[in-house]
Specification:
Two copies of one chain form a homodimer. Chain A is an all-alpha fold. Helix content of chain A is 73%, strand content 1%. In chain A, strands 1-2 form a two-stranded antiparallel ribbon. At the A-B interface, α2, α4, α6 and α7 of A face α2, α4, α6 and α7 of B.
Chain lengths: 343, 343
């Protein structure tokens, strides 16, 4: 299964990267330079780089959904590239808002080009995605464009909720609120990717909605596992500094579940999470102590069990649209891959 | 002519505002609140406000272009609203990047809701505009969506150029660079508004391009007059504090033309514009002295003459697509209105 997913992701990159690159190359010079840097195709000084544009999970879901519903993936390459452009537009803007300095092992675009240029490059990528769909003669394109635009609105609301939750104290945040936020911020675009694939395969409304539900639930499982990796993963593989989210007092799902557990470790964790981020008295071992407290309070186990629950829901939605397990194989492999990876 | 334009603008508001309001009301609560404030439909505390959503020039151009080419304006109300949403998305983001604190006589959205929320609300408005076009069954909608998205990319490049020009010294900026920037930042969307109207009227490629050229040139004339008003206009009418752009050392077109004039007043102006904005030694009369120097160096006359030249170019483009002066009357009235207003 992992092998199948890796193959799908690699072949997606081979299909979609040239389309994505062509779209980015069509931007005016100033915007192109920032986008090429963000995608890892250029260094900050404009010299070519090997490229490290992420795992291509969203475009892979688009193409796998087309295939699963009997369509021809080659017809949906633009839609797959458009989804990836939207994902990267949100990354550019989220990094500005969250003041994140590292992404995919490199300094974030705003640290290199400034806030204004990172905002503008994100705006341009959103527009580019919509342009690709508007210029796509495929009969599924208009509905795909509408759905992708509606998804962007949901992503914005999700990011707003994330920022609002981060401003509140650790004891003022419920797990349900965090799950709703994660569905909007992460689940929505994975669901939309699957829905776009269904639209490009000519699926009916019920199938499109079921595919959206599959991607949404798998997306939440993905976010849960991503949060686990963010705390206990190998920073050499995640591309982010170890313990950075804990040092910043990020209210990730395992942390909030741990805080809500009513265990002695929860009280300890609440104390460790009190006060502003980056206090000098935290010391270098602070993140490690937080991680251990989250684990002892059951946050890690909860995240893994809840991810499995969400995967069951995802599989149920998938079976509703695609009863034949063999046809659904690619989508399943991708969902299993992103929720079973350990880095 | 001014009377005709005022009537067109008023009837545009009556047509387009309900569509715009409906679109904004469809946003999730967090995004809706910021957008309602930005459009002047709500106060910062969420109570209803009278609304002061600008002059509706861009939607008026869309509808006037449809009419001028023999189409039915009622079919293009969504396109007109989409253009206005795009305009407002750029205002929200530009205010963040430029740190502008006043817009339409009120505090800008970021000063009320913070940077992150103003960025997100702008993102959501861009998406909303594209969603409206993607859901519009009109045969002109897909081409309009593609053209509007391409225009957003140009607007981003224009705003980038504006920021880059502002970072350079007054003696390191040429008038040509500023004109190119103003065409991308302001001309592009006015041109796009006219082009969208042409597309909704079923016009051919040449007519669409000519209408784009008309709007672009009229847009540049509009920007020139806007710059003149920004320096010499009545702040009670502009909605911006008097001399704010001069105090901020903004390189508006009359200022750059004055600096490039080679007159003794240009040297005086260069000295007044040297140093960082807001120096305490500037004193309250600084802006007035700058304005007088710009005027004596010929910056005000140049801007007015150049605006008239651009209007001639605009009218030439318009005649190319619409030889009958009576049909072209509405578009002409709008262009004359925005370039002859004194406030």
């Amino acid at each position: 299964m992992a092998h199948e997913a890796a193959e799908i992701l690699a072949s997606t990159r081979a299909y979609v990267d040239p389309e994505l690159r062509r779209a980015v190359e069509s931007l005016p010079g100033s915007m192109r330079r920032i986008a090429l840097y963000h995608f890892g195709w250029e260094h900050a000084d404009g010299t070519p780089a090997a490229g490290n544009a992420g795992k291509a999970i969203r475009p892979a879901l688009v193409l796998a959904a087309v295939r699963a519903l009997g369509g021809e993936p080659a017809t949906a390459v633009r839609a797959a590239a458009a989804v990836e452009l939207i994902h990267n537009f949100t990354l550019l803007h989220d990094d500005v808002m969250d003041r994140d300095t590292t992404r995919r092992h490199r300094p974030t675009a705003w640290t290199v080009f400034g806030y204004a240029d990172a905002i503008l490059a994100g705006d341009a990528l959103q527009a580019l995605a919509q342009r690709m769909l508007a210029e796509d003669p495929h009969p599924g394109a208009p509905a795909a464009a509408a759905r992708l635009a509606a998804c962007v609105v949901e992503l914005c609301a999700g990011q707003h909720a994330d920022c609002a939750l981060e401003r509140r104290g650790p004891d003022e945040v419920t797990l349900d609120e965090c799950l709703v936020m994660a569905e909007a911020k992460t689940g929505a675009l994975l669901g939309c990717a699957c829905a776009l694939g269904a639209l490009y395969a000519g699926a009916d409304r019920d199938e499109v909605d079921a595919l959206d539900g599959f991607g949404r639930q798998a997306g939440l499982a993905f976010q849960l596992i991503d949060d686990v990796i963010g705390i206990w993963g190998d920073p050499g593989r995640t591309g982010k500094p170890a313990g950075a989210d804990l040092a910043a007092r990020k209210k990730s799902l395992p942390v909030v579940a741990a805080l809500a557990s009513g265990t002695p470790a929860a009280a300890e964790l609440a104390e460790l999470y009190a006060g502003p981020p980056g206090r000098t008295e935290d010391g270098p071992a602070h993140a490690t102590r937080v991680a251990c407290a989250v684990e002892r309070a059951g946050g890690r186990d909860w995240a893994q069990v809840h991810a499995a629950d969400r995967m069951s829901l995802a599989i149920g939605q998938l079976a509703r649209a695609i009863p034949d397990p063999e046809s659904a194989g690619g989508l399943l492999a991708l969902a299993e891959f992103v929720t079973r990876r350990t880095h």
